[in-house]
Protein backbone atom coordinates (compact mmCIF):
# COMPACT_ATOMS: atom_id res chain seq x y z
CA UNK A 1 0.00 0.00 0.00
CA UNK A 2 1.33 3.41 -0.93
CA UNK A 3 1.74 6.06 1.76
CA UNK A 4 2.53 9.77 1.53
CA UNK A 5 5.14 11.13 3.90
CA UNK A 6 6.39 14.70 4.32
CA UNK A 7 8.74 16.40 6.77
CA UNK A 8 8.41 20.18 7.10
CA UNK A 9 10.26 22.62 9.35
CA UNK A 10 8.82 25.95 10.45
CA UNK A 11 9.17 28.62 13.11
CA UNK A 12 6.42 28.96 15.69
CA UNK A 13 5.61 32.66 15.36
CA UNK A 14 3.30 32.97 18.37
CA UNK A 15 5.95 31.88 20.90
CA UNK A 16 8.70 34.47 20.84
CA UNK A 17 11.44 33.93 23.42
CA UNK A 18 12.79 36.80 25.57
CA UNK A 19 15.89 37.00 23.34
CA UNK A 20 13.68 37.58 20.27
CA UNK A 21 14.20 34.13 18.77
CA UNK A 22 11.41 31.77 17.79
CA UNK A 23 11.21 28.00 18.43
CA UNK A 24 11.93 25.76 15.45
CA UNK A 25 9.33 23.04 14.93
CA UNK A 26 9.07 19.92 12.77
CA UNK A 27 5.79 18.78 11.21
CA UNK A 28 5.38 15.18 10.08
CA UNK A 29 2.55 14.39 7.68
CA UNK A 30 1.59 10.81 6.84
CA UNK A 31 -1.45 10.29 4.60
CA UNK A 32 -2.84 13.68 5.66
CA UNK A 33 -2.39 13.03 9.40
CA UNK A 34 -0.18 15.66 11.05
CA UNK A 35 2.05 15.41 14.12
CA UNK A 36 4.37 18.14 15.34
CA UNK A 37 7.46 18.09 17.49
CA UNK A 38 9.90 20.65 18.76
CA UNK A 39 13.43 20.67 17.37
CA UNK A 40 14.64 22.09 20.72
CA UNK A 41 16.23 25.02 18.90
CA UNK A 42 15.55 28.74 18.65
CA UNK A 43 16.15 30.81 15.53
CA UNK A 44 15.90 34.51 14.71
CA UNK A 45 13.00 35.12 12.31
CA UNK A 46 15.28 37.06 9.94
CA UNK A 47 17.35 33.88 9.36
CA UNK A 48 14.47 31.54 8.49
CA UNK A 49 13.67 30.89 4.82
CA UNK A 50 10.07 29.63 4.68
CA UNK A 51 10.27 28.50 1.05
CA UNK A 52 13.31 26.25 1.55
CA UNK A 53 12.59 25.15 5.16
CA UNK A 54 16.12 26.16 6.12
CA UNK A 55 18.09 28.98 7.66
CA UNK A 56 19.29 31.39 5.01
CA UNK A 57 22.78 32.80 4.78
CA UNK A 58 26.26 31.52 5.44
CA UNK A 59 26.70 32.63 9.03
CA UNK A 60 27.90 30.13 11.62
CA UNK A 61 24.47 30.17 13.27
CA UNK A 62 22.68 29.47 9.96
CA UNK A 63 25.06 26.62 9.17
CA UNK A 64 24.59 25.14 12.66
CA UNK A 65 20.81 25.28 12.30
CA UNK A 66 20.87 23.77 8.80
CA UNK A 67 23.09 20.90 9.94
CA UNK A 68 20.69 20.18 12.83
CA UNK A 69 17.67 20.35 10.49
CA UNK A 70 19.35 17.95 8.06
CA UNK A 71 20.16 15.49 10.87
CA UNK A 72 16.57 15.55 12.12
CA UNK A 73 15.20 15.11 8.58
CA UNK A 74 17.51 12.15 7.89
CA UNK A 75 16.74 10.47 11.21
CA UNK A 76 12.96 10.89 10.86
CA UNK A 77 13.10 9.57 7.29
CA UNK A 78 15.18 6.59 8.42
CA UNK A 79 12.68 5.81 11.19
CA UNK A 80 9.81 6.06 8.71
CA UNK A 81 11.51 3.65 6.30
CA UNK A 82 12.23 1.16 9.10
CA UNK A 83 8.60 1.27 10.24
CA UNK A 84 7.33 0.78 6.68
CA UNK A 85 9.57 -2.27 6.26
CA UNK A 86 8.61 -3.87 9.56
CA UNK A 87 4.93 -2.91 9.91
CA UNK A 88 3.85 -2.22 6.34
CA UNK A 89 1.88 0.86 7.39
CA UNK A 90 2.74 3.99 9.35
CA UNK A 91 0.72 6.63 11.17
CA UNK A 92 2.14 10.10 11.79
CA UNK A 93 2.62 9.28 15.47
CA UNK A 94 4.87 6.27 14.81
CA UNK A 95 7.90 8.05 13.26
CA UNK A 96 7.53 10.85 15.80
CA UNK A 97 7.55 8.41 18.72
CA UNK A 98 10.40 6.43 17.18
CA UNK A 99 12.46 9.60 16.72
CA UNK A 100 11.77 10.70 20.31
CA UNK A 101 12.49 7.21 21.66
CA UNK A 102 8.97 6.73 23.03
CA UNK A 103 7.86 3.12 23.19
CA UNK A 104 11.18 1.80 21.92
CA UNK A 105 12.19 -1.45 23.55
CA UNK A 106 15.71 -1.20 24.91
CA UNK A 107 17.70 -4.19 26.00
CA UNK A 108 20.11 -4.55 28.89
CA UNK A 109 23.66 -5.76 28.45
CA UNK A 110 22.92 -8.99 30.29
CA UNK A 111 19.87 -9.70 28.12
CA UNK A 112 22.07 -9.27 25.05
CA UNK A 113 24.51 -11.81 26.49
CA UNK A 114 21.65 -14.26 27.11
CA UNK A 115 20.32 -13.77 23.58
CA UNK A 116 23.76 -14.24 22.05
CA UNK A 117 24.53 -17.34 24.13
CA UNK A 118 21.21 -19.00 23.26
CA UNK A 119 21.66 -18.27 19.54
CA UNK A 120 25.25 -19.51 19.65
CA UNK A 121 24.28 -22.70 21.50
CA UNK A 122 22.09 -23.65 18.53
CA UNK A 123 25.14 -23.43 16.25
CA UNK A 124 27.40 -25.68 18.33
CA UNK A 125 27.93 -28.86 16.36
CA UNK A 126 26.89 -27.15 13.12
CA UNK A 127 30.12 -25.42 12.17
CA UNK A 128 30.93 -24.14 15.66
CA UNK A 129 32.86 -25.87 18.42
CA UNK A 130 31.76 -25.91 22.06
CA UNK A 131 35.07 -24.33 23.10
CA UNK A 132 34.29 -21.17 21.15
CA UNK A 133 31.14 -20.36 23.18
CA UNK A 134 31.25 -17.23 25.33
CA UNK A 135 29.34 -18.61 28.31
CA UNK A 136 31.88 -17.30 30.81
CA UNK A 137 31.44 -13.66 29.90
CA UNK A 138 27.91 -13.24 31.26
CA UNK A 139 28.67 -14.39 34.84
CA UNK A 140 31.92 -12.44 34.78
CA UNK A 141 30.08 -9.34 33.62
CA UNK A 142 27.44 -9.78 36.32
CA UNK A 143 30.16 -9.96 38.98
CA UNK A 144 32.26 -7.07 37.76
CA UNK A 145 29.66 -4.72 36.32
CA UNK A 146 29.80 -1.42 38.16
CA UNK A 147 26.50 -0.35 36.62
CA UNK A 148 23.18 -1.70 37.79
CA UNK A 149 22.20 -4.82 35.83
CA UNK A 150 18.91 -3.15 34.89
CA UNK A 151 20.64 -0.23 33.16
CA UNK A 152 19.37 0.16 29.59
CA UNK A 153 21.59 0.55 26.56
CA UNK A 154 21.02 2.07 23.17
CA UNK A 155 21.12 0.53 19.71
CA UNK A 156 24.82 1.37 19.55
CA UNK A 157 25.54 -1.29 22.16
CA UNK A 158 23.68 -3.89 20.12
CA UNK A 159 25.80 -3.02 17.09
CA UNK A 160 28.97 -3.19 19.20
CA UNK A 161 27.94 -6.58 20.59
CA UNK A 162 27.30 -7.89 17.09
CA UNK A 163 30.78 -6.78 16.07
CA UNK A 164 32.34 -8.43 19.13
CA UNK A 165 30.39 -11.66 18.81
CA UNK A 166 29.60 -12.23 15.14
CA UNK A 167 27.22 -15.06 14.39
TrEMBL record:
Q: Name one Pfam family in it.
A: Arm-DNA-bind_5
Q: Where is the Arm DNA-binding domain?
A: 9-94
| InterPro entries attached to this UniProt entry | Arm-DNA-bind_5
UniProt name for this protein: Arm DNA-binding domain-containing protein
